[in-house]
Amino acid sequence: MPTRLSDRGGVAAAYAAGGVLVIAVTVIMAWLVWQGLSTISWDFLTTGPAPGSLEQGVAGGILPALVGTLIVIVFGMVVAIPLGLGVAIFLTEYRQPNWLAKGTDTAIDLIFGVPSVVFALFGLAIFSQGWLSWLSNPVGDAGMATAQSFFCASLMMALIGLPPVVRSSQAAILGVPNQQREASYALGKGRLTTIRRIVVPGARPGIATGIVLGIGRIAGDTAIVWILLGGAVLQSPPDGWFLPWNIGDFLRSEGSTLTTYIFFSSPAGEGNSPGQAYGAAFVLMVVILFVNIALIRLSRRKIGKR
Amino acid sequence: MAGHPAHVADPSDLVLAIRGLRVSFSGNEILHGVDIDAPRGGVVALVGPSGCGKTTLLRSVNRLTELAPTASITGEVQLDGSNIYDRGTDLNLLRRRIGMVFQQPNPFPMTIFDNVAFAMREQAKSRPSRSSLLPAVEDVLRRAGLWDEVKDDLDRNALSLSGGQQQRLCIARTLAANPEVILMDEPCSALDPRSTARIEELIVQLAGSLTIVIVTHNLAQAKRIGDYAAYLLNGDVIEQGLAQQVFEDPTEQSTRDFVSGMFG
């Protein structure tokens, strides 16, 4: 079959676009693995930064940063998942009153589009109010708060984790065939039961995708961590921070995550130890990858025995 | 009227009486004041050309029509003498009393067991256990003529069944709510002839213990299974009565043209 030249050109361009993307990603991944793997060791994962690592090239581990990343993910998503799912259900199954639905839509788009540093700045203004000092720590007698803590950072993280959860869940809920809702109504089930038993289970894979994307956004954010968590890279958590009676104090204190650790230890930051940065970047990548695979697997639960 | 169908004990005992039902969507009237009688235990076939409003009529009997925000409905649908459109009608209870089987088999993406148990499990608190539901599940699967085919596979995904089996599962699922009336919207149109024959057999078996109102495109099917028939055209009931009379000796010219296959 004769092919027009412009067709062949289009096909070639499509191939080239795909090829460039695959090559770029492969190179980045390979570079990270190659650079990062040599730094990874048990000590690297299980110790804090060594005292004095402010000086160039001084070794230390990433445990506090790794724990910090996990904390903001968990706390951020604990808020973002139920809220996001609720918003998605409102926007798809109810949409009444219309002005509220439209307003919500716009708000989600705004949160999606505005850089997190803007929200971080706003958070600093809010969380530094004295009456919110239980989220961080009071500053002297001035009736102010530090506004830098895991609580403060996680609350803002919930905000930036929200839009992907909403949008993915929304698309998935719309994808549940109307026939199934009608079948449920026709069996005498109300709206809430239908949503709970038919719509949400049917949308599970899409909801999981939204959660994965939300986690990715939170784990990748640096601005909020720097401004609302303090980016205290060198500060190791106090001994026994994980004990129940210490955890509250710990979550009200400053900390760091892998992103701020990477920035700090990269040649662009004060630490200037690229090996550490690559190691941490590799760990961050593995964490995200692991969470992705686990969630997608879980959401595709098979029905029945066969 | 000549003798009445075997399923029907008393033709004057109407389980459903539709009176002056008007339905419009966005001001566009689809049904122009429809009256239909459904004697208890009978099979009522609604026939008519595409777009005559028979599906809308059916969906107005279990109040699914109003799920469309643009729908407006006036007139009465009396179930055992009381109007289902009265304020204060418990919609969920109504839809358990008037079940529905759809055109496309639409089992839930769950196991066969869970599909049937769905209607039996009441809201949240104290969900009945599987073993306590099993006898009832078996009973409705037997009544739907599916038990022998699935008894060893109750935990299989319902979507792995064949189309005909899926439709019988949907009938079983509807029976599980213990309805007095089942509405069927062209239940065989997506099925092959053999599956169709099984569903027809099933409809005849179920009649008597409950009332079936079936919309069908298939005149031969309406003749085979209908005790009563109503012929709709452009949103009006042209003729209704005993199926035999409507199909073999219609009084209206339009009905005569339709049943003789001149259009539709």
Commentary on this structure:
Chain A has 306 residues and is mainly α. Chain A has one domain: MetI-like (MetI-like fold, Orthogonal Bundle), CATH 1.10.3720. In chain A, 69% of the residues lie in helices and 1% in strands. Chain A has 13 helices and 2 strands. Chain A has a two-stranded antiparallel ribbon. The mean pLDDT of chain A is 88. In chain B, strand 4 and strand 5 form a beta hairpin. Chain B is α/β, with parallel strands linked by helices and 264 residues long. Chain B contains 10 helices and 10 strands. The two termini of chain B are 28 Å apart. In chain B, helix 4 packs across helix 6 and helix 6 packs parallel to helix 7. Helices cover 33% and strands 25% of the residues of chain B.
Task: Give the gist of this structure.
With 306 residues, chain A is an all-alpha fold. Chain A has helices at 5-37, 42-46, 63-94, 98-113, 116-127, 150-175, 178-186, 191-202, 204-220, 223-229, 244-251, 258-265, 274-299, and strands at 138-139, 144-145. Chain A has a single domain (37-305), classed as MetI-like fold.
Number of distinct beta strands of chain B: 10
Number of helices of chain A: 13
Mean pLDDT of chain A: 88
The overall pLDDT average of chain B reads: 91
* Integer tally of domains of chain A: 1
Helix fraction of chain A, binned, reads: 55-70%
Counted by DSSP, the helix tally of chain B is 10
Outline type of chain B: globular
Compute the separation of the termini of chain B in Å: 28 Å
Strand order of the largest sheet of chain B: 6-7-8-3-9-10
Bin the helical content of chain B.
25-40%
Give the biggest beta sheet of chain A. Answer: 2 strands, antiparallel
| Strand content bin of chain B | 25-35%
Helix and strand string of chain A, N-terminal first?
Answer: HHHHHEEHHHHHHHH
CATH second-level architecture of chain A: Orthogonal Bundle
